[in-house]
Write a structure and sequence with these properties.
By secondary structure, the protein is of the alpha+beta class. Residues 1-20 form the signal peptide.
């Protein structure tokens, strides 16, 4: 865990003996409450290293790079329980279910240079080093560890586009740095298509590589400078094991031909015996080496490690300060860490001069800050709605405009599906950039070209070659005998279409709204009244047989799930779903059957993303994330309240394995943030949040418009599971939702909790959240 000072420990101990009101002033700051180690064990796949809010550089330790078929557990490059550290690379995903990145691996060396990482079970076999967990420190924007084999204290910090290393070497030992340009996360032979390292006359080192990984043909450029002059260097292409340019002796001039090219490059840089630390400053770019140099010069001054660290700390304090949380210490740590994880991506992709590389692999220029790393199948649900609440319009508009700009230069003319570093991976399903754009527009985010956005959305929703869309447009569903995962695709397309209709309606495009409203009802074409499940149909209209609602197989009827999870994915028409289920009582019974399902005899070990099971509810994967709130639509909000307690208690805690599944670029964390506040965006695009129950004594949103919205809780204990009453600004709130405009106006939402369920509050049809169908019809 991150190291907490004695004063903070005493403060938390005193807080435990006081009332919530008395304890609040003694709580550690939001910044100090974050523990970046949460999610680094188990299935969380987060990294503990240094990153600024939405930073281009994610500078973090790598404990192992695995061959791609074994890379799932090392998707972030780091696992908490690994005994050795290979080095420190500059790009990482936070919590994904797929691996890549790990670019520009830097290794400090205090002895003879070893060119290969060696075996994790025998650190002496290579350049990797053992380390002690007690020596690790991780906090937002800073990481430190002692490499015991080398005797080196390594410290890392990061600005937006720059990573800064500070290495303290043993007295009398030579200071050397190895650059291994061969490996990356999701490693396999032939991944590096071509690369180059060059040493400039002023000692700047630059380079380039193109990789064929998760995103094909990704180009990455870097620039690196050292705080001390080199006394020697060696460049190698390990493909042929032939050294290039040799080892430079002191006094031998460097020239601009000091470079090596190939597919397996390394460089070793010698600084001799030095007094004091060696600092290494690295910047990256997707554009060119000139862009990387400009990024390098945009931050950090003359190797001002403490200055970069302080500025990044200030940036994190400001970002985390958007939410003030008063809760039990463990919950508070979990929540501020969740908020931290929600603010790592989408990451800055454009260079300091506004240039960026697009999905067409060409370089473009923009007058806004281009972002990438869009895990849209995951993040449209809660992470992006969270950003619309707590991030300024400029940041949200930059993200939306980045999506639109990518569509405008895409070879296929569609919005990103799952993209990073500007490149498309075609991972997951749906066109979920659409709800992200629509939700931001409908919530009044300024700085978006709505007509360009609408054109991009329609282009994505009508691109017939993508994911069975042609058949979907013709038949009203995706046929399973022509397209895998057809049931999931049909219901997800229908929701995306509904968000297009809502935005078109707001813009006054009535014909477009009517067209996509009709498509939004296509979920019904997957509904099987006999089994009361969403199912896959064949092109002739018959359901595929045999049918097993518990079956999970990649490429089958569903995407990373089965009928139990996907039969609830009708967020735009939950009232219609309740009716199709047979009414309120039948819906509640079906939900209970899902949560209480006996999984004895079922084996999901082949499905990596299936984690965090509660019956057939799977919290470790996104299709289930709104399902606990479905009880509200069936007039049983007290059942939602009990299930949320069950989920939070079993799926989150403040240890390294504190996330039940992949954080998925902040979605798992955003779910917890919303749920702890007491409401959740079941239907982004509706401008409503469904009320569940709070998990904090007090939470205040410091809104970008300068207003404050506070959620207070009376009687919050483990025994008091149930909401007894809710008031908004002192007036009784009898409905089970709150509007985005009500939050933006500022005020206070107050909950009273109790041990027995209130089976009257929020139960009538008029109290329920939005649905495109009327309740009871």
């Amino acid at each position: 865990m991150r190291r907490i000072g004695l004063a903070a420990v005493l403060a938390m101990a005193l807080a435990g003996c006081a009332t919530a009101q008395e304890a609040a002033p003694a709580q550690v700051s939001a910044y100090d409450a974050v523990d970046p180690f949460i999610g680094t064990a188990g299935k969380g796949h987060t990294f503990p290293g240094a990153v600024a809010p939405f930073g281009m550089v994610q500078l973090s330790p790598d404990t192992d790079f695995r061959f791609f078929r074994q890379s799932y557990d090392w998707a972030s490059g780091y696992r908490y329980d690994d005994p050795t550290i290979m080095g420190f690379s500059h790009t990482h995903f936070s919590g994904t279910g797929h691996s890549d990145l790990g670019d520009v691996l830097i290794v400090p060396i205090s002895g003879e240079v070893q060119w290969d990482p060696g075996d994790a079970t025998d650190p002496a076999s290579g350049y990797r080093s053992a380390y002690t967990k007690a020596s690790e420190i991780a906090e937002p924007g800073y990481y430190a560890v002692t490499l015991t084999d080398a005797g080196i204290r390594a410290e890392l910090t990061a600005g937006v586009r720059v990573g800064l290393h500070r290495y303290s070497f043993p007295r009398g030992a030579p200071a050397r740095v190895l650059l291994d340009f061969r490996p990356s996360i999701y490693d396999y032979p032939g991944k590096v298509l071509w690369s180059r390292i060059r040493v400039h006359p002023d000692g700047t080192v630059t380079g380039f590589r193109e990789t064929r990984g998760w995103a094909p043909g990704r180009q990455l450029y870097f620039a690196m400078r050292f705080s001390r002059p080199m006394v020697g260097y060696q460049l190698q292409n390990r493909e042929e094991n032939i050294p290039y340019n040799g080892f430079r002796q002191p006094g031998r001039a460097m020239d601009d031909r000091a470079q090596v090219q190939g597919r397996a490059l390394e460089g070793a840089f010698d600084f001799g015996n030095i007094a004091g630390p060696l600092l290494v400053k690295v910047a990256i770019s997707s554009v060119d080496e000139t862009g990387a140099i400009r990024n390098l010069e945009s931050e950090g001054g003359d190797f001002d490690f403490n200055g970069v660290r302080a500025r990044t700390r200030t940036a994190w304090e400001e970002a985390l300060g958007a939410v003030e949380i008063d809760a039990a210490p463990e919950m508070r740590t979990s929540l501020y860490t969740a908020l931290y994880h929600s603010l790592i991506a989408p990451s800055v992709h454009g260079d300091i001069d506004g240039r960026w590389r697009g999905p067409d692999n060409a370089v473009h220029q923009s007058d806004f800050t281009v972002h990438s790393t869009f895990s849209l199948w995951d993040t449209f649900r809660a992470q992006h709605p969270l950003l619309t609440l707590i991030q300024p319009d400029t940041r949200n508009a930059d993200m939306i405009n980045s999506l639109i700009a990518a569509q405008q230069v895409s070879p296929y003319g569609i919005l990103p599906v799952w993209s990073f570093h500007g490149q498309e991976t075609w991972t997951m399903i749906g066109y979920h950039a659409v709800p992200v754009i629509a939700d931001a527009y409908l919530k009044g985010i300024h700085g978006i070209d709505s007509e360009a956005a609408m054109a991009a959305m329609i282009a994505s929703a009508t691109y017939r070659p993508y994911g069975g869309l042609g058949d979907y447009m013709d038949l009203g569903f995706v046929p399973i005998d022509r397209e895998p995962e057809a049931a999931s695709k049909t219901v997800e397309y229908a929701y995306d279409d509904w968000t297009i209709a809502r935005m078109a309606e707001r813009m006054g495009h009535t014909e477009i709204a009517a067209q996509f409203d009709r498509r939004a009802g296509n979920w019904r074409n997957t509904w099987d009244a006999g089994t009361r499940f969403v199912r896959a149909r064949k092109a002739d209209g018959t359901f595929r047989e045999p049918f097993d609602p518990t079956a999970i197989n990649y490429g089958s009827d569903y995407t990373e799930g089965n009928a139990w999870q996907y039969s609830w994915f009708v967020p735009q028409d939950m009232a219609g779903l309740v009716t199709a289920m047979g009414g309120d009582e039948a819906t509640v019974a079906k939900l209970d059957a899902m949560f209480d399902f006996d999984n004895t005899g079922l084996d999901y070990s082949h499905a990596e993303d299936i984690a965090g099971l509660i019956g057939q509810y799977i919290h470790g994967n996104e299709p289930s994330h709104h399902s606990a709130y479905a009880y509200v639509y069936a007039g049983a909000p007290w059942r939602t309240q009990a299930r949320l307690k069950q989920i939070v208690d079993s799926q989150y805690h403040s240890g390294p394995a504190g996330l039940a599944g992949n954080d998925d670029v902040g979605q798992m964390s955003a779910w917890l943030m919303f749920t702890a506040m007491g409401f959740y965006p079941v239907t982004p695009g509706s401008n409503q949040y469904v009320i569940g129950r709070p998990f904090t004594d007090r939470t205040t949103l410091n809104l970008p418009n300068g207003r404050r919205f506070t959620i207070t809780t009376e009687g919050l204990t483990d025994a008091n599971l149930y909401v007894q009453s809710v008031t908004l600004n002192g007036r009784p709130l009898d409905r089970t939702w709150i509007g985005h405009d009500e939050i933006q106006a500022g005020g206070t939402l107050h909950f009273v909790m109790g041990v027995e369920p209130n089976m009257v509050w929020g139960t009538n049809a008029g109290a329920r959240p939005y649905s495109m169908s009327a309740y009871g019809q």
